[in-house]
Amino acid sequence: MWTCRNCNVSFDFDRTVPEVDEQGFFFLCPACDYRNKLVDTGPDAAGRPKLVQNDDSVSPNDESD
Ligand SMILES: [Zn+2]
Question: Where in the sequence does UniProt note compositional bias of the Polar residues kind (predicted)?
């Protein structure tokens, strides 16, 4: 389940299609078209990229200004 950071609606994985471009992984919210950033945390047991929303575990090295 992913949650849009703009409109706060949650979507099942099968309702959203992760995309990737030069800036990284993201999905477009089906409701409001907001670009929600995703982070690839590495291959899962099946060898597929495991994409998560990183907002809940912000790195201490993230620039905050
Ligand atoms: Zn949205």
Answer: 54-65
